[in-house]
From TrEMBL:
Cellular component terms per the entry's GO annotation: lipid droplet; mitochondrion
Naturally occurring in which organism (per UniProt): Chanos chanos (Milkfish)
Catalytic activity of the protein: 1-(9Z-octadecenoyl)-sn-glycero-3-phosphate + (9Z)-octadecenoyl-CoA = 1,2-di-(9Z-octadecenoyl)-sn-glycero-3-phosphate + CoA; 1-(5Z,8Z,11Z,14Z-eicosatetraenoyl)-sn-glycero-3-phosphate + (9Z)-octadecenoyl-CoA = 1-(5Z,8Z,11Z,14Z)-eicosatetraenoyl-2-(9Z)-octadecenoyl-sn-glycero-3-phosphate + CoA; 1-hexadecanoyl-sn-glycero-3-phosphate + (9Z)-octadecenoyl-CoA = 1-hexadecanoyl-2-(9Z-octadecenoyl)-sn-glycero-3-phosphate + CoA; 1-(9Z-octadecenoyl)-sn-glycero-3-phosphate + octadecanoyl-CoA = 1-(9Z-octadecenoyl)-2-octadecanoyl-sn-glycero-3-phosphate + CoA
UniProt protein name: 1-acylglycerol-3-phosphate O-acyltransferase ABHD5
Gene responsible for this protein: abhd5a
UniProt-listed GO biological process terms: cell differentiation; fatty acid metabolic process; lipid homeostasis; negative regulation of triglyceride storage; phosphatidic acid biosynthetic process; positive regulation of triglyceride catabolic process
Length: 364
């Protein structure tokens, strides 16, 4: 039983895991038992090792690109990859990763997508190599902190407008940014977005959540989602390899070893800044406190939306239809990529890249 719970907990890039709270509770407990200065030595990781893991992730890329920390407010900075390509005058495509992710996970997409326009990929505030500041405990304020960090990043780089693509949590934040700064978004691309539907009433669910899971979620909900990975200490890298072998398979065409698992591990055992922010945006079982479907109808009608899902994903694919219903006087395109799960861009990268390029072509 314990192993099965741990398995679900380690589905840490899937925001809808029902069981992530258990090891989070243990993380907080351990922190009360040992002094905080001891904890970093428990996890075989460091910012240097994260940097090295990312460099190994990006090694297959043959195109020229640059890497830099883009400074924003409060002495923070967002780690950014820039592919300027040969069509620098065209509207740039900006990629926002999902929960627990980082720029390295776009390795199968960056070169193909940058053939026709500049492409920017950034580590969200609190994730990856970007700064990991303190976030508010209020969901509205957390969302605003993320949105303002993206706007400050855009202004610093001098981008007048962009095609904004977000996966998972990145999709939610891309929509939130578009609502506040519509003049800066030429096209919104939502890839398996998190946080759009409201949490269903218990009576509306096909499979009611067992009482013991409800109780566990209520008791442990204050704690961070990825705590179990940090608690595993020296076993963490092996745990990722064992419990998430699918990531190795997704990138097997370019990495025959554990490069991807190592990168994911080092991404998620650093200071849990963005992780805590995400927790503050959720209610039990991974639903958003401020569901985006309540607001997406307010998005400026001139901003077209493309929604991309994996045909085999467990994420609710009905949000795209709901968006289309709300925006009948605006362009909404829904695409399901055959054979892909939640990580569409890695499951079927060629089909995903082709679709994104088609969407981008409608901008100019």
């Amino acid at each position: 039983f314990g192993f099965r719970v741990a398995h679900r907990l380690l589905m840490f890039l899937d925001a809808h895991s029902l069981f992530y709270c258990l090891l989070s509770f243990l993380d907080k407990t351990i922190r009360s038992w040992w002094i905080s200065s001891w904890l970093p030595s428990w996890c075989p990781s460091s910012l240097y090792q994260l940097k090295d893991a990312e460099e190994r992730m990006l090694q297959p890329i043959k195109s020229n690109f640059s890497k830099e920390f883009v400074p924003i407010a409060d002495d923070n900075a967002l780690w950014t990859l820039i592919f300027r390509g040969s069509a620098e005058g065209r509207t740039p495509l900006v990629l926002l990763h999902g929960f627990g992710g980082g720029v390295g996970l776009w390795v199968l997409n960056l070169e193909p997508l940058s053939q026709q326009r500049p492409v920017y990929a950034l580590d969200l505030l609190g994730f990856g190599q970007s700064s990991r500041p303190h976030f508010s405990s209020d969901a509205r304020e957390v969302e605003l902190q993320f949105v303002e960090s993206i706007e400050q990043w855009r202004a610093r780089l001098g981008l007048e407008a962009m095609i904004l693509l977000g996966h998972n949590l990145g999709g939610y934040l891309a929509a939130a940014y578009s609502l506040k700064y519509p003049s800066r978004v030429k096209h919104l691309i939502l890839v398996e977005p998190w946080g759009f539907p409201e949490r269903p009433d218990p009576g509306d669910q096909d499979r009611p959540i067992p009482v013991w899971i409800k109780a566990l979620g209520a008791i442990l909900s204050p704690f961070n989602p990825l705590a179990g990975l940090r608690l595993a200490g020296p076993l963490g890298p092996t745990l990722v390899q064992t419990l998430r072998p699918d990531f190795k398979k997704k990138f097997s065409t370019i990495f025959p070893d554990n490069t991807v698992s190592d990168y994911i591990y080092h991404l998620n055992v650093q200071s849990p800044s963005g992780e805590t922010a995400f927790k503050n945006m959720t209610i039990p079982y991974g639903w958003a406190k401020r569901p985006m479907l309540q607001r997406i109808g307010l998005l400026h009608r001139d901003i077209p939306i493309a929604v991309i899902y994996g045909s085999r994903s467990s994420i609710d694919g009905q949000s795209g239809n709901a968006i289309r219903e709300m925006r009948q006087d605006s362009h909404v395109e829904i695409t399901a990529i055959r054979g892909a799960g939640h990580y569409v861009y890695a499951d079927q990268p060629e089909d995903f890249n082709q679709k994104v390029l088609q969407v981008c072509e409608t901008v100019e």
